[in-house]
Amino acid sequence: MLNIKNLSAGYGEMPVLKDINITIAQGDIVSVVGSNGAGKSTLLKAISGLITSKGTITYNNESLHALAAHTIVQRGIIHVPEGRKIFPEMSVVENLIMGGYLHPKDRKGNMERVFALFPKLADRRNQLGGTMSGGEQQMLAIGRGLMGNPKLLLLDEPSLGLSPLFTEVVFNAIQSINKSGVTVLLVEQNVYQSLKISNKGYVIEIGSIVLTGTGEELLNNQDVKKAFLGM
């Protein structure tokens, strides 16, 4: 579904990613894990067309390099950014409508799907996004992404700053989304939780992939245990 070869990207003259190679098969959950500042968010921005990059990014045999960010969204690649980036002065329903602007005919069904996945959002449908808790805002950010009919969902640090309870809700939701047929690329500092639900994982350090394997293989890797799991 998505093939990344020899990808390099950064900001201005500052390189962040170096020769990244990643393959994502349709229907999988793939995690890219690493410490803060390793380049995880930069990777998602390069895929989404938000920053320029060198190398090859191919989605269903089509190069993404020549496409604008909004065109990449039209292809079904939906990016849920770090920090949620909801519209704080808009209600829950208004935020969701913004996420579904390309698919007005699917709006009602998609909104029902989001409310079934996150019942708390249904209870707060008329509440302003900015007045909700961090966990509720994260659910709203993911829900807004689902309104865009994603085929490939890019999730940037969805558990960042969340309580253990909301973290569990978010990771359960990711699995449910995947079971519905959506491929997921997840970048996370929560190494244990993300690899636990992943078919495949990559460990990134200082802009380079240093380990790859199935989620289970990486969880049992001694270097991963030592560096990220305190074992």
Describe the 3D structure.
The protein has 231 residues and is an alpha/beta fold. The protein has a domain at 1-76 and 183-231: P-loop containing nucleotide triphosphate hydrolases (Rossmann fold). The protein is 37% helix and 27% strand. The chain is built from 10 helices and 10 strands. It has helices at residues 40-48, 69-74, 92-99, 107-117, 119-123, 134-146, 164-179, 191-196, 215-219, 222-228; strands at 2-11, 14-24, 29-33, 53-59, 62-63, 77-80, 152-156, 183-188, 200-205, 208-213. The strands form 2 sheets. The chain has a 6-stranded mixed beta sheet, sandwiched between helices. It has a 4-stranded antiparallel beta sheet with strand order 2-1-4-5, covered by helices on one side. It is globular.
Strand-helix topology:
Blueprint: E1 2-11, E2 14-24, E3 29-33, H1 40-48, E4 53-59, E5 62-63, H2 69-74, E6 77-80, H3 92-99, H4 107-117, H5 119-123, H6 134-146, E7 152-156, H7 164-179, E8 183-188, H8 191-196, E9 200-205, E10 208-213, H9 215-219, H10 222-228
Parallel strand pairs: 3-8, 3-9, 6-7, 7-8
Antiparallel strand pairs: 1-2, 1-4, 4-5, 9-10
